[in-house]
Design goal:
GO molecular function, one term: aldehyde dehydrogenase (NAD+) activity
CATH architecture of the largest domain: 3-Layer(aba) Sandwich
Helix content: 25-40%
Number of domains: 2
CATH topology of the largest domain: Aldehyde Dehydrogenase, Chain A, domain 1
Radius of gyration: 23 Å
Structural class: alpha/beta
Largest sheet: 7 strands, mixed
Family: Belongs to the aldehyde dehydrogenase family.
Strand order of the largest sheet: 15-18-19-14-13-21-22
Distance between the termini: 74 Å
EC number: 1.2.1.3
Number of helices: 15
Organism: Salipiger abyssi
Keywords: Oxidoreductase
Bound molecules: nicotinamide-adenine-dinucleotide
């Protein structure tokens, strides 16, 4: 079988990597390669940066009025809406998440482009009070230049939109390095928006490995900022490399998010929220609620209900509407999940359901892990501290509110936290004390372009979403006039 060969998108045209090096890309459900993607190198990264720099400095994008930029963003939103089904199918083929999830996710992407379109023509300046006698001083907000955007495999086009929409609204240009596991959707998206009129060079996509093309982009002198989403080790490497050039970065990294259930909660709502919070996307979500902190006197009954719901989860073909969870996205991720399950057992946790590889009900070769619940976990065990990025829930009991907050915050991470209670005063007390970028009360995992999202501690640096974050893609200049 000949495999599809996908090319880089640079300067408004598809082109093969200069080295002519390729790597296979696999469908995790069929466990078979379906295509070849570029294994680009530093020279491809440089070509893409040069195209983005040229588009930033001259030509239709550089000359576009803010209103025209807003119009372009709205066109991108329309293109995504019109092609949502195709784009979602491409993502499912590469990451194995269910079509229902990826389609719903892609259908929400236009909201991001429309939201930041609304801000493109509201980036004002400021006339300052007289700062020196006889001088007039004003402030300009200018785009930064070429932004490198490095994205992971779990929600490829959505996490790109979180970066690209504000960056373009502010007048920047972009070079995208999608995950080597999910390169196809960004390439298709780039082709579609190019056909829709985005000027050449404004959006470039370069396929390849993080340590190769990702590192080349991060260290490139003409890249003004790196916007990264991925794991802690990649984030650290990007931060260290960017420090050499004193380049700004935004880092959206991993999590070990707690779901805290108090005795006064609506317990059925909480149990359902906890189960979907960890097992949705097979746990392959940065905000997966991987630690369940449950008030001790509820522990047994609540865990029993969680296990009952967990055992109803249907694994299988991600394209089938009957499926709740598809296969694990790739072999390294599967190995990581099984290693973490091994740690939990070695450290003395009790596996009450799951804990093993399971076969696809259709008999296919994809890698599946049974949704897994561990009890008897203490917060110092590896299973409670390390991000698994898989369908594994660790249950930790607590006695009172102060202990719940202490356990929740005793983590290297601080991305999300869930709080299940009907006590309004407790909601505000606990929400204020949790070290997490998003706190969800009687709900979990809600995100929107309207609300800032990001992490405390090792979960990252900077925020994505919301009005204010457009400032992260702008530079401030004071202009002094001697009158
Ligand atoms: P990853 O860190 O392995 O890869 C992410 C991207 O970074 C890929 O494109 C990869 O090629 C690139 N990369 C890796 N090393 C690099 C380097 N040294 N220099 C430059 N680029 C490099 O992450 P992943 O496995 O694709 O994704 C899963 C991780 O992403 C999890 O930790 C998850 O929590 C995190 N994540 C965070 C958020 C968030 O918004 N906070 C959202 C989704 C996923």
């Amino acid at each position: 079988m000949t495999l599809d060969r996908l090319q880089n998108y640079i300067g408004g045209a598809f082109q093969p990597p200069l080295s002519d090096a390729w790597m296979e890309t696999e469908n995790p459900y069929s466990a078979a390669a379906w295509g070849l993607i570029p294994r680009s190198g530093a020279e491809d990264a440089s070509a893409a940066v040069a195209a983005a720099k040229q588009a930033f400095e001259s030509g239709p994008w550089a000359e576009a009025s803010p209103t025209a930029r807003a119009g372009m963003l709205r066109r991108i939103a329309a293109v995504v809406a019109e092609n949502a089904e195709e784009l979602a199918r491409i993502e499912v083929r590469d990451n194995g998440k269910t079509f229902a999830e990826m389609h719903a996710q892609v259908q929400r992407i236009p909201d991001w482009y429309n939201f930041y379109a609304g801000l493109a023509d509201k980036i004002g300046g400021e006339l300052l009070p007289e700062a020196r006698p006889g001088h007039m001083t004003y402030v300009r907000h200018e785009p930064l230049g070429v932004i490198a955007m490095i994205t992971p495999w779990n929600s490829p086009l959505m996490l790109l939109a979180w970066k690209l929409a504000p960056a373009l609204a502010a007048g920047n240009t972009a070079v995208v390095k999608p995950s080597e596991f999910t390169t196809a959707s960004a390439l298709r998206f780039a082709g579609l928006v190019g056909e829709a009129g985005l000027p050449a060079g404004v959006l470039n996509v370069v396929g390849g490995l993080g340590a190769e093309v990702g590192a080349a982009l991060t260290g490139h002198p003409d890249v003004a900022k790196v916007a990264f989403t991925g794991g802690v080790s990649g984030g650290r490497a990007v931060y260290a490399a960017a420090a050499q050039d004193l380049k700004p970065v935004s880092l959206e990294l991993g999590g070990k998010s707690p779901n805290i259930v108090f005795g006064d909660a609506d317990l059925e709502l909480a149990a359902r929220g906890v189960v979907s919070g960890i097992f949705g996307s097979g746990g392959q979500s940065c905000v997966a609620g991987s630690r369940l902190l449950v008030q001790r006197d509820l522990h047994d009954a609540f865990v029993a209900r969680v296990v009952e719901l967990t055992e109803k989860i249907r694994l299988g073909d991600p394209m089938s509407p009957e499926t709740d969870i598809g296969p694990v996205a790739n072999r390294p991720q599967f190995d990581r999940i099984m290693t973490c399950i091994g740690w939990a057992l070695e450290d003395g946790a009790t596996c009450v359901t799951g804990g093993t590889q399971v076969q696809d009900p259709e008999g296919g070769p994809g890698l599946f892990v049974a949704p897994t619940v561990f009890t008897g976990v203490s917060n110092d065990m590896r299973i409670a501290r390390e991000e698994v990025f898989g369908p594994v829930l660790s249950v930790i009991p607590f006695d009172g509110e102060a202990e719940a907050v202490a356990i929740a915050n005793d983590s290297p991470f601080g991305l999300g936290a869930g709080l299940w209670t009907r006590d309004v005063a407790r909601v505000h007390r606990v929400a204020a004390r949790l070290q997490a970028g998003s706190v969800w009360v009687n709900t979990y995992k809600a995100t929107s372009q309207i609300a800032p999202f990001g992490g405390y501690k090792a979960s990252g640096l900077g925020r994505e979403g919301g009005v204010e974050m457009i400032a992260d893609y702008l530079q401030t200049k004071s202009v002094w006039l001697n009158l």
